[in-house]
Amino acid sequence: MPAKAMNKQMPSPIKAAQFDDLLLQQRPMFDVRAPIEFDKGAFPNVINLPLMTDDERQQIGTCYNEQGQDAAISLGHQLVNGATKNRRVEQWYAFASEHPDAVLYCFRGGLRSKVSQQWLAEAGIAIPFVEGGYKALRTHLIERLDHLVEEVPAFVLSGRTGTGKTEILPQFDRTIDLEGIAKHRGSSFGKYIEEQPSQINFENNLAIALMQLKQTSSEAVIYEDESRLVGCRLLPLSLQAKLKSSPIMVLKDDFDARVERIFGEYIVNAIAAWEQQLVDPTEAFLAFGDSLLQSIYRIRKRLGSEAHIHLVKLLEKALHQQSNQLDLNYHKHWITYLLNHYYDPMYDYQLSLKQGRVVMQGTSSELVTWYKTNNMSHT
Q1: Most CB atoms closer than 10 Å: which of 68, 71, 208, 368?
Q2: Which is it for strands 358-362 and 221-224: parallel, antiparallel or unpaired?
Q3: Over the chain, what is the mean pLDDT?
Q4: Which residues in 3-113 belong to E strands, given as ranges?
Q5: Which of 238, 241, 225, 239 is CA-nearest to residue 350?
């Protein structure tokens, strides 16, 4: 940061009419809200460089409620002053220097945005803030999301568990990977080690993904078949309705290939992920086993008591073999049982209710070829 401040004319705020371009161009933004606010929801590729810590924000909020705005502003300048102020401005300065087209925002585009902009300008860099702040951008994305879901045609990619629906998504030209955005594989066994994004972040990322696709074309988009929830993230009502009304492509694969695919993803890859996370092999093994037992416990009511008890026994035997013989293959026994007695009957019943919407069934290559030939006719 230069030792002597430069005079800079304040640029105009970023207005609502510019929000689409702001998000689609992925302009660098920094969020000056407190960390607790940022954690509840933000936007992709945004960094949190707060004007106030959580504790400072709480103190100022209490002061505002008890003594009014002027007293709160005065307290704010007392808390964020001297070396503390300099450190925060230096962070903004470093970010803005690295990103000349940077933008800042607070919650409503009010006092925090103006103070941050002013302090940064006094340090020698003038950048715009978002008019209406986070709240205005969030409202814009909610409205755009519902509009785009309704406007852009869709296909639903369906198929029994383990057919590799997520694997083939990249082979299509236009897709929305709901499980990727939600950081969850969708099933009871689909929890990642890392936490899911907040509901707000899930919706924001989904909206921007749709905006990006709409920008390039109006052709149909493929969504993987999902229930109302992907893990703990709720699909917007507009998207739930879209998935219930759009034409369906059914991915087929043989049973043994499905078992192998599930074994690779939920056993081999999961163990590797736990070992990378926890380092200690024993801790990783215990965490891995516990995660599988929890997954089975979550579906115990739908499984029924007898099937649940049998499945737990199969899993415990597989974990015993893994621990004592370093043999993972016994996991295929409980995977086979789970497909035959839970996932396949449930899926077949659900698909029977949607037969009128099924437009194509086939292997991955057959579906990709069909989609590329027929996409335009459904736009």
Answers
A1: 208
A2: unpaired
A3: 92
A4: 29-31, 46-48, 103-105
A5: 225
Measured between alpha carbons, how far is 125 from 117 in angstroms, rounded to an integer? 9
Task: Report phi then psi at 176, rounded to 5.
Answer: -120, 115
175: helix, strand or coil: strand
Cα separation, 207 vs 149, in Å, equals 9
CA distance 323 to 285: 8
- Count CA atoms within 13 Å of residue 4 on its CB side: 2
Contacts of 189 (CB under 8 A, 6+ apart): 266, 292, 295
Are the C-beta atoms of 90 and 1 separated by less than 8 Å?
Answer: yes
In angstroms, what is the C-alpha Rg of the chain? 26
Backbone dihedral angles phi then psi of residue 80, each to the nearest 5 degrees: -110, 85
**Residue 114 Cα distances to 88, 138, 258, 334, angstroms:** 15, 20, 57, 60
Tell me which H or E stretch contains 373.
helix 364-374
Exposure string of 212-225, with b = 16+ CB inside 10 Å and e = fewer, is ebbeeeeebbbbbb
Mean pLDDT of 63-75: 89
Distance of alpha carbon 138 from alpha carbon 113, whole angstroms = 16
Percent of the chain predicted with pLDDT > 70: 97
What crossing angle do the helices spanning 133-151 and 199-216 adopt, rounded to 10°?
60
Predicted confidence band at 1 (pLDDT cuts at 50, 70, 90)?
A: low
Distance CA 342, CA 130 (A): 50
How buried is residue 193: exposed, middle or buried, by Cβ count under 10 Å (0-12/13-18/19+)? middle
pLDDT at 9 exceeding the cut of 80: no
Contact 211, 24 (CB under 8 A): yes
> Annotated active-site positions, please?
106
Across the range 59-80, mean pLDDT stands at: 90
Amino acid at the residue 169: L
CB neighbours of 292 closer than 8 A, spacing ≥ 6?
189, 266, 315, 319
Cα 39 from Cα 95, distance rounded (Å): 20
Check: CB of residue 241 under 8 Å from CB of residue 156.
Answer: no
Say what the pTM is. 0.86
Q: Exposed e or buried b for every residue in 321-337, given b needs 16+ CB within 10 A?
A: bbeeeeeeebbbbbbbb
